[in-house]
Description:
The protein starts with a helix and ends with a helix. Helices cover 21% and strands 29% of the residues. The strands form 3 sheets. Strands 5, 6, 7, 8, 11, 12, 13, 14 and 15 form a 9-stranded mixed sheet that branches. It has helices at 3-9, 15-23, 116-123, 143-151, 188-195, 226-234; strands at 27-29, 32-33, 48-50, 53-54, 63-68, 97-98, 106-113, 131-138, 154-155, 158-159, 164-170, 174-181, 200-208, 211-212, 221-223.
Amino acid sequence: MRLQKYMAKCGVASRRESESIILEGRVKVNDLVIKELGTKINSDKDIVKVDNKIIEIEKNKVYIMLNKPEGYVTTVKDKHSENIVLDLIDGVRERIFPVGRLDCDTSGLLLLTNDGNLAYKLTHPSHEVIKRYIALVEGIPNNKKLTRFRKGLKIDGRMTAEAYVRIIKRYKDSSVLEIAIHEGRNRQVRKMCKYIRHPVIKLKRISIGKLTLNDLEVGKWRYLTRDEVDYLKKL
Ligand code: URA
């Protein structure tokens, strides 16, 4: 479909006005500014932004919370993996996708939606919302290590932002930590725990902002309530 037609279908402006917006250099397709009026896009694949905001054809928006089991990959398609999270969501016709990522070996709260704007907002580094995890780690970290964890650690050459951590259970050779971070770097919790020499044995995400798993069983999903969706949109 031609870019200006797509913009009109998304409710940005009329086709004619959309052409002016394109010529003004305010439109990006897959993060490249496009100024040619004839440009064709694939509305299933291409990400179109106007003034840096993703636009989409109005469709039925769905918002889902899944209690992801370990062993499932957080991608829409994976040729090399048998288990993808979408296999767990039955009976939803809309083309949903996961919001952010959980490692294959991490369980817990994962959001899925077809609302590109909300997904973009929730995962953008400047908006990152607080995510809470329960981690079973090797050994029992001492206070010095916990303080370093809270203040920030150099992971992949960059300091992590302030974090929350407390020990909620002590075993002989391991302990259970409650951790909260608001960044979303790759394998961040695992890397932070490894850094203080208490590698993660098991990891589960229990909340995103004020959304919590509560009693949602592992492998089960539910639609978010209206209040929950409104809350996410207001973040
Ligand atoms: N941190 C991790 O290390 N893994 C996750 O899946 C999420 C956060």
